[in-house]
Amino acid sequence: MSTLKPLADGIWVVAAPLSLMGFRIGARMTLVRLGDGSLVLHSAVPIDDALAREIDALGPVRHVIAPNTFHHLWAKPALERWPDARSWAAPGLEKKRKDLRIDARFDEDAALPFARELEPLTIRGCKLGETVLFHARTRTIVSSDLTENFVQVDHLPTRLYLKASGVYGKPGWSRLLRWLYDDKKLARQSVDRLLRWDFDRVVLAHGEPLSSGGRAAIEQTFRFLG
Fold it and tell me: Quick check: 122 and 108 in contact, CB under 8 A?
């Protein structure tokens, strides 16, 4: 299991392997330490005992977030490790994952107790139903599927897929998955609101995090919305 890697002050990430339809796209979990010392665990990956000890050394896990309708596979094991944590899930997961304990809905209208430190914004007009978080103190957006950033891929089938998608070697959103944005006008409005934030760094699930230049990357990613 990969170990925690610091990304910014109070933010850590963990990368994990993930294959989908034979393509090696990977996954990433983010941990954010709040002002009270507790942790928000966003988009869980598989967590073994060694990684759990590393996480526990950072602080108590108080929140486990499944941020969209696709990033939820390992939320249940995370909640089993930290049963006192509150479970937040994107709208729709209550139907998709009846086995998953869900304490509260996760979107920008939810009463998030950490909203002053992690401001939410829901990307509407997209079937993913993702809500991203803005950590103003470090100018970081925490997301899963806001964009992708595959810099280099050794696996040939995956590399060919990414080239066909138009996203190999640069941040972007696969042209093969643009159908997920079924209301482009509404999605454009959400992205324009997001671009009003003063951010530079973007955490994402697939590919490498954007340690700088995040605003330009998001602008480029969503040009297809018009």
Answer: yes
Determine the Cα–Cα distance for residues 137 and 148; give it in Å rounded to an integer: 23
> 148-179 burial string, b = 16+ CB within 10 Å, else e?
bbbeebeeeebbebbeebebbeebbbeeeeee
List Cβ neighbours of 124 (8 Å cut-off, separation of 6 or more): 183, 186, 187, 189, 190
Its pTM stands at: 0.95
The answer to whether residues 110 and 88 touch, using CB atoms and an 8 Å cutoff, is yes
CATH (domain of 115)? 3.60.15.10
Domain holding 137, by residue range, is: 5-225
Euclidean distance between CA atoms 143 and 74, whole angstroms: 16
Environment class of 90 (CB within 10 Å of its CB; exposed 0-12, middle 13-18, buried 19+): buried
| Per-residue pLDDT tens over the stretch 5-48 | 999 999 999 999 888 788 898 899 999 999 999 999 999 999 99
**Would you call 71 exposed, middle or buried from its count of C-beta atoms within 10 A (0-12, 13-18, 19+)?**
buried
CA 176/CA 92 separation, integer angstroms: 23
C-alpha distances (whole Å) from 152 to each of 20, 30, 87, 163, 174 are: 18, 22, 34, 11, 16
Q: How many domains does the chain have?
A: 1
